[in-house]
Amino acid sequence: MKPLPRIMVAPNGARLTKKDHPNVPVTIPEIVQSTLDCIAVGADGLHAHVRDESQQHVLDVGLYKELLAELAPKVPEQFMLQITTEAMGRYTPAAQRALVEGVRPEAVSIAVREMTAGEDDKTLRRFYNDCHEAGIAVQHILYDVADVRALAVMVAGGTVPKSGLQALIVLGRYSAGQTSSVVDLGAPAAALLSTLPHVDWAVCAFGAYETECLLAGRALGGKARIGFENNRMNQDLSCASSNAERVAELAEAMGVARAA
To answer: Could you read off the pLDDT of 153-201 as tens digits, one per residue?
Structure first.
């Protein structure tokens, strides 16, 4: 099971289309090229969403398998290829589990509040432990302190395996205007580190203060997820031309060397 990368790129997310930015990658060839461009400037992981022909977010086994098959021979061995089960208000926990079972990826992000909604512990325990036994790295998505506490309870009870535990603190997703600031990191990070000190964790942040938030997370021992899914603005408030530009800014600030 791979550890979380220092810099994971999230190039498209579930909501953006070409109307939001012409360089949002929505087709498989575009996602592949964006990923390779980001590797060249310091990314060592991908958080991938696939889209249908109308650019809409879908949990599609075939599309994910196609994307992973295209990327696998082109990326470094230790590069993490992570899919998502994001529900977008459309997909049930059962549909999310079916995606993971159908794709069998090396890594997947799963929101605690989405996967546990209305589900019994037996079902959740079987799913999370099956993922662990299969070597699938599950990154648990945490939007607030309540999510952190819910994950801690599941780990303590054995529903989620303690070994190889990974998490992502998301800043600004449910704030006004989907913007975040460094101060937003304090409470969830403190809760996570006090209840699950062994966790391998990262931060992502919506809005123009993305870079500052990610650097603050790094100072606390966290890793970073960056890209158009969360923000398209550079630190100087200019609009980034590409995901690679966002990755390059963070990599430079972190002192991460570019790929040879």
So the answer is: 999 999 999 999 999 999 998 877 788 999 999 999 999 999 999 999 9
Contacts of 72 (CB under 8 A, 6+ apart): 81
- What's the pLDDT score for residue 260? 56
- Can you give the pLDDT at residue 143? 97
Pairing of strands 166-171, 223-226: unpaired
Using an 8 Å Cβ cutoff, are 205 and 227 in contact? no
Which residues have CB under 8 Å from 252's CB, separation 6+? none
* pTM as predicted: 0.96
Q: What is the DSSP letter of 46?
A: E
Hunting for tokens 């600031």 — which residue is that? 181
- The dihedral over CA atoms of 134, 7, 196, 212, expressed in degrees to the nearest 10, equals -160
d(C-alpha 244, C-alpha 1), whole Å = 26
DSSP result, 159-220: SS-STT-EEEEEESTTSGGG---GGGGHHHHHHHHHH-TT-EEEEEE-STTHHHHHHHHHHT
Task: Give the whole-number percent of the chain exceeding pLDDT 90.
Answer: 95
Both tokens of residue 31? 């996602």
Instruction: Tell me the pLDDT of the chain averaged across its residues.
Output: 96
The residues spanned by each domain of the chain are 7-254
Question: How many angstroms separate the CA atoms of 142 and 190, rounded?
Answer: 13
Q: 7-254: which CATH topology?
A: TIM Barrel (3.20.20)
Q: Using CA atoms, how far apart are residues 23 and 92, in angstroms rounded to an integer? A: 30
> What is d(CA 122, CA 159) in angstroms, rounded to the nearest whole number?
8
